[in-house]
Amino acid sequence: MRLRVLRKFDPWGSPLCTCPPKYSLQPYTGCSHMCLYCYATSYIGRKPSKPKKDFIKNLALDLLKADPSLPISMSNSSDPYPPEESRLLLTREAIKVIARHGFKLLVVTKGSLVARDADLLSRMRAAVTITITTMDSGLASIIEPGAPPPRQRVEAIKTLIKAGVPTGIRLDPVIPWLNDDEHQIKEVLETVNSLGVKFVVTSTFKARPDSLKRMCNAFPDMCRKWEQLYRVEGTWIHGYWYAPVNVRKNLLRKVVEIARKLGMEYATCREGFRGREWFTAKTCDGTHLIERSINELANKSYFKD
């Protein structure tokens, strides 16, 4: 069955991926957030977000053929809430179409603009995960130059939770010697937990040639250490340099131990780790957050704007 804009999620055949079956949907190509560590630039290039032609029309046609039991993840490689979305409203229109067809939706974003659509998301089977890698606005402005500052994302979380939208975070990636300090991690998790966030998924930085080059250009004093860790001591796995297993475990252990103390459920992403030490959540991607009482939605319309 050929679909136009919906795709079955396929992490390039990686055996380390633990995501449940789902569809992947990208309203835009490219990404104006321009994160230095982005893996997707190896596939789609590093360019501003551009709306897909006839996207809403093609999405509506796809939803007539798609399996309604599978959730839709928006987005996995190009953020659905770049600055352009504020005037184009492409993602907002997509949410309306998805809701009318009764599909489940997981929104994955760094964009604080997602809070604008809390009215729609709160009336459908939907959840949101927002990426926050650090509360340090200075560091964030370097590694995520086109994305909203961390505090704006926190405000978006506050709005979503107040509206009743299940919301988790991605503390992803954890980058050696950059945002891996225990105090930084604790600040992120304590901040969002105080708002009611109970789920975090985390992952270490997996280097690709282009992303490692960008990171080295931005932080030349760390370049030699990263080169040694990834290209010399690390392992090339399915298109990425992975840091050694013991290093990755030590990095992620900081996150999961703090999450555990805060009473948060947690998961790791594309690490190949199994067991309760690394997973207490039902899913690694947050799709389990979509589950909610039918009674909660009984009097809410999919069709209101």
Characterize the structure shown.
With 305 residues, the chain is of the alpha/beta class. It has a single domain, classed as TIM Barrel (Alpha-Beta Barrel). Helix content is 36%, strand content 15%. The chain contains twelve helices and twelve strands. α8 links the parallel β8 (167-174) and β9 (199-204). The longest helix has 17 residues, at 245-261. The chain is globular.
Number of helices: 12
Contiguous low-pLDDT stretches (5 residues minimum) are none
The CATH topology corresponds to: TIM Barrel
Strand composition percent: 15-25%
Cα end-to-end separation: 32 Å
Computed CA radius of gyration, to the nearest angstrom: 19 Å
The spatial strand order of the largest sheet comes to 1-2-5-6-7-8-9-12
Strands, total number: 12
Identify the CATH homologous superfamily: Aldolase class I
Tell the overall outline: globular
Mean pLDDT: 94
Number of domains: 1
Structural class: alpha/beta
What is the string of SSEs from the N terminus onward? EEEHEHEHHEHEHHEHEHHEEHEH
CATH architecture: Alpha-Beta Barrel
- The percent range for helix content is 25-40%
Protein topology:
Layout: E1 7-8, E2 23-24, E3 28-29, H1 41-44, E4 50-51, H2 55-65, E5 72-74, H3 85-88, H4 90-100, E6 105-109, H5 118-121, E7 126-131, H6 137-143, H7 150-162, E8 167-174, H8 182-193, E9 199-204, H9 209-218, H10 220-232, E10 235-237, E11 240-242, H11 245-261, E12 265-268, H12 294-297
Parallel strand pairs: 2-5, 5-6, 6-7, 7-8, 8-9, 9-12
Antiparallel strand pairs: 1-2, 3-4, 10-11
